[in-house]
């Protein structure tokens, strides 16, 4: 009797012919009743559902509860209360689960036509194929996801961060140039310095025997000068810090000084005996490097402009740059040497280099001073060297060196990031951005089809212009500052300006 009572209670708990609320099935049953079609529990031959009141084979199915009236069948309580807790299964697909469980134990095999019809019914009723749903199925091999399937949650929680949110680890650098300009007849000469960008946002470009100015704000192009003799050409250009005067070196050993506002030549300074391939300003002193290996200092304020001669190279001076604080002048030559010159003369009255670096195995044209470490210098060697080296000019030590695997033509430091960019020739003709001081490669900028001759940077340090032997100028927005940091920097600069004005008053 105890055994019968237990089975009766178990049957009352698991009895599945009592309908369990299910919104899709309820709608389907109402629709079937209105149309006269058989419902899920009907005996129609085309019904995809099996009878839901079967128990596993071998179990006894008592029809009546012992000790009770024969006409009353015990069922699962429908209201809260009673002697046991029954969870609310209204949100579960219990009918579907029961169908799949009973189908597993059904030895009958349906015909292909019947299976297709059942699949169509399941899709129409439930919105998915019950075979693929795998509701409460604990056996069988896992099925592969259909082609093109994408888990929305997986996409949401596993996608990579956008460039804006990953600025702590990196930043977005456009791989394509922002603008491309033609530079016809630009001289394909490694030793010349043919472009420079002024603080007033004018780009000076030397094209054979002429100099053109491009107003980067308005887009206006100005033809500044043309050499009188057709065999002469412009070999170097350099802007003064204020941006209102341009120094021009020529192949006939002249250094010309031009006023940009008036577009007029102010003076013509002659002291060299060969072409002037490099120029660099230090306040009112313009230094010029010639093919003979000599460097001359010119004081543009006085009539006798030639005030000093530096003799430390045996071949052409192709790289020349004053440090930002004006204390040192770095020169690189075709003799593979790098010399560091002081701003003032020695006790004997002669200039002598305070440091001479001999590690490069090729011509040194690329020389650039670090903007945040005044005693740090970057240099790059030519085709037979291909190395970028970082120097401490005070101690004379080489801080680091990296093989660039190609000719180094130019180097520029970024003031917005702890990075610098290098322009290269044979074989890839690319620009490379390097992280400092790790000397790891950040990215490469490709597009030129011939070697990069020179690099120059915009006044806001966000854009780099590259001139190449493919007769094009390309503008790369590779150092654009984060808008938030840019706003903070402008605010700090305006605060400093206001403090100065208050002090003057």
TrEMBL record:
Sequence segments annotated as region (Disordered): 29-88
Keyword check for Hydrolase: no
A single GO BP: G2/M transition of mitotic cell cycle
Biased composition, class Low complexity, residue ranges: 35-45
Keyword Cell division: yes
Pathway terms, separated by semicolons: Protein modification; protein ubiquitination
Superkingdom, natural source: Eukaryota
UniProt WD repeat ranges: 227-268, 310-341, 445-476
Keywords for this protein: Cell cycle, Cell division, Mitosis, Repeat, Ubl conjugation pathway, WD repeat
GO molecular function: anaphase-promoting complex binding; ubiquitin ligase activator activity; ubiquitin-like ligase-substrate adaptor activity
Segments forming domain CDC20/Fizzy WD40: 181-476
Pfam families: WD40_CDC20-Fz
GO CC, alphabetical: anaphase-promoting complex; centrosome; cytosol; kinetochore; mitotic checkpoint complex; nucleoplasm
Assigned protein family: Belongs to the WD repeat CDC20/Fizzy family.
Assembly notes: Component of a complex with CDC20, CDC27, SPATC1 and TUBG1. Interacts with NEUROD2. Interacts with dimeric MAD2L1 in its closed conformation form. Interacts with BUB1B. The phosphorylated form interacts with APC/C. Interacts with NINL. May interact with MAD2L2. Interacts with CDK5RAP2. Interacts with SIRT2. Interacts with isoform 1 of NEK2. Interacts with HSF1 (via phosphorylated form); this interaction occurs in mitosis in a MAD2L1-dependent manner and prevents PLK1-stimulated degradation of HSF1 by blocking the recruitment of the SCF(BTRC) ubiquitin ligase complex.
Function of the molecule: Substrate-specific adapter of the anaphase promoting complex/cyclosome (APC/C) complex that confers substrate specificity by binding to substrates and targeting them to the APC/C complex for ubiquitination and degradation. Recognizes and binds the destruction box (D box) on protein substrates. Involved in the metaphase/anaphase transition of cell cycle. Is regulated by MAD2L1: in metaphase the MAD2L1-CDC20-APC/C ternary complex is inactive and in anaphase the CDC20-APC/C binary complex is active in degrading substrates.
Protein's name according to its UniProt entry: Cell division cycle protein 20 homolog
Organism of this sequence: Anas platyrhynchos platyrhynchos (Northern mallard)
Species classification: Eukaryota, Metazoa, Chordata, Craniata, Vertebrata
Gene: CDC20
């Amino acid at each position: 009797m105890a055994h019968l009572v237990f089975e009766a209670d178990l049957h009352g708990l698991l009895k599945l012919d009592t309908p369990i609320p299910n919104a899709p099935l309820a709608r389907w049953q109402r629709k079937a009743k209105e149309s006269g079609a058989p419902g899920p529990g009907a005996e129609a031959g085309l019904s995809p559902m099996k009878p839901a009141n079967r128990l596993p084979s071998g179990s006894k199915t008592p029809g009546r509860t012992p000790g009770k009236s024969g006409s009353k069948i015990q069922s699962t309580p429908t209201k809260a209360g009673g002697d046991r807790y029954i969870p609310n299964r209204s949100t579960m697909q219990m009918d579907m689960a029961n169908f799949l469980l009973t189908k597993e134990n059904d030895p009958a095999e349906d015909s292909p036509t019947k299976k297709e019809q059942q699949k169509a019914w399941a899709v129409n009723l439930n919105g998915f194929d019950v075979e693929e749903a795998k509701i409460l199925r604990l056996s069988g091999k896992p099925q592969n996801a259909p082609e093109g399937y994408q888990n929305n949650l997986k996409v949401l929680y596993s996608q990579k961060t956008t460039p804006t949110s990953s600025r702590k680890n990196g930043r977005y650098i456009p791989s394509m140039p922002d603008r491309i300009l033609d530079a016809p007849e630009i001289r394909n000469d490694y030793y010349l310095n043919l472009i420079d960008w002024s603080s007033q946002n004018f780009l000076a470009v030397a094209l054979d025997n002429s100099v053109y100015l491009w107003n980067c704000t308005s887009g206006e192009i100005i033809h500044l000068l043309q050499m009188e003799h057709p065999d002469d050409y412009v070999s170097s250009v350099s802007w003064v810090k204020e941006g209102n005067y341009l120094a021009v070196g020529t192949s006939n050993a002249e250094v010309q000084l031009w006023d940009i506002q008036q577009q007029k030549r102010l003076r013509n300074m002659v002291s060299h005996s060969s072409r002037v391939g490099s120029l660099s300003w230090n306040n009112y002193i313009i230094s010029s490097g010639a093919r003979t290996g000599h460097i001359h200092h010119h004081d543009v304020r006085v009539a006798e402009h030639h005030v000093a001669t530096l003799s430390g190279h045996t071949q052409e001076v192709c790289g020349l740059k004053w440090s930002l604080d004006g204390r040192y002048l770095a020169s690189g030559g075709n003799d593979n040497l790098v010399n560091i010159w002081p701003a003032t003369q020695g006790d004997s009255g002669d200039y002598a280099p305070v440091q001479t670096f001999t590690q490069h195995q090729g011509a040194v044209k690329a020389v650039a001073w670090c903007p945040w470490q005044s005693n740090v210098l970057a240099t790059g060697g030519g085709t037979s060297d291909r190395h970028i080296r970082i120097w401490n000019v005070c101690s004379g030590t080489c801080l680091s060196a990296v093989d660039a695997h190609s000719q180094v033509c130019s180097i520029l430091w970024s003031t917005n990031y702890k990075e610098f960019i290098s322009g290269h020739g044979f074989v890839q003709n690319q620009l490379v951005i390097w992280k400092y001081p790790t000397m790891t490669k950040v990215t490469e900028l490709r597009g030129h089809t011939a070697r990069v001759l020179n690099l120059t940077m915009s006044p806001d340090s966000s854009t780099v212009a590259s001139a190449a032997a493919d007769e094009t100028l390309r503008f790369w927005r590779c150092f654009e500052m984060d808008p938030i940091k840019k706003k903070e920097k402008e605010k700090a600069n305006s605060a400093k300006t206001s403090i100065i004005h208050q002090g003057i008053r």
